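Tutorial handout. Part one gives the primary structure; part two gives the three-dimensional structure as tokens.
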Amino acid sequence: MGIDAKDLEIRIGARLLLSPTTFHVAKGDRIGLVGRNGAGKTTLTKVITGTMLPTSGSVHVSGKLGYLPQSTHAADPEQTALDRVVSARDIAAQLKRLRKTEADMASSDPKVMEKAMNKYDRVLSEFETSGGYAAQSEAIKMTESLGLTQETLKQKLGTLSGGQRRRIEVARILFSNADTLILDEPTNHLDADSIEWLKNYLKNFQGGFLVISHSTELLGETVNKVWHLDAQRSEIDMYSLGWEAYLKQRQVDEERRRREREVAEKKADRLMKQGIRLHAKATKAVAAQNMMRRAEKLLESTEPMERAEKVADLRFPEPAPCGRTPIMAKAISKTYGSTEVFTGIDLAIDKGSRVVILGLNGAGKTTTLRILAGAEESDTGEVIYGHGAKIGYFAQEHDTLDNNVSVLENLQHVAPDLDNTQARTILGSFLFSGSDAEKPTSVLSGGEKTRLALATLVTSRANVLLLDEPTNNLDPASRDEILSAISRYEGAIVLVTHDEGAVEALKPERVLLLPDGDEDLWNDQYLELVALA
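Part two.
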């Protein structure tokens, strides 16, 4: 049971992400896959799971594979949360047949209704015999451990928040009884209690898993191997070590590479100088050429020095002039079906103000931002935009990006006045240089989509930024950049986040507590609620 990859090579366009590599993930392997944003970690998981084809080489999976991608959009929005989790087991067909029969029993067509009623007992018996109700009970217990209520499990996926959908997907993959797990940023949108539960689950997992995570806490407590995907060399450095031991060994390895490179460069320099001197003598021309070739081979056989990895130049735009209150929300409410999310919320966003929205998953934080951004209608009340208001909205699920076009085209859609050179210059500062600007947006990792979404904000001259989990999927260096950008921005910011560091960078003046809509002046006691929300 596991994953076998042989001579696996991955390219995106002209760019080499992974040179031919052979690896194995076996039972008991708990592997952390790390590397900078854009190195190809998510692309590698897509190739392993068969959602993308490699350039060459092969991947063979034995046993059942469970895959948690970064995106939660793939599921049927009409399916209930509980059915989504239970469908990961082999009873999915029986469950689908049962739900269709139940729907047909409510049909307005008498013949359809009668036929469904006649076969209902048989369909229900098949579901029970296959362990359906026992599986539902187990699924409910697992989802409760991830902070989801039974009431939430009855809701359709389309009515749930991004955080709730993410928890459903995590529960689904863990519930699937997979022999091997591939988890891409599993802690996104999870609160502190859910992360603690997930860590304990992975520590006790009997199969093998490969996890991509920027949570050093998760890696430190769960992995026994670390694979570092080096974007400069397009190779995986494999360490059979835990996280802390890996960090120390990687420093040792980098120092060894540095010393070897220095020695090689000195030897090569001496050979080249000797070759140049000899080349002046016609009788020594062959010897000179041989010395120069030896110098070149010496450098080629030595691993290149680790270059400092580039970091996106994340700077929010200088805000355009605006009136005193660019956004005013009056008595806004939202209900999905029979589920009331919040009601009667009032909020004024003044020029340059800094507000953080707190609440449990499903309390309506993302919905509030979407309503303020004009991306969703409020059921009641209104949102009034003041004089000169320019809104910049960062969506946690990257909903503002068009996956059907390239990176460059996404930027040009929001900034049609930019010529090609100007657009490419902006993208270059966000690490989309050269052919990367031509990449289809659909193949980008979560971190790359975050950078692209932030790049679209730079052109906006927005004076109000609505930021929904802006640090998700970012490597530590990129996260530091966005925290610096938040602290320097002179316009108004409304922030939703589980990241305490983002709140500290914001230095909020006020807090909006959902779903009740209570507003308070900020004090540091609220900081304790950020990771729990």
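Part three, for discussion. The CA atoms of residues 15 and 108 lie 57 Å apart. DSSP finds 18 helices and 18 strands in the chain.
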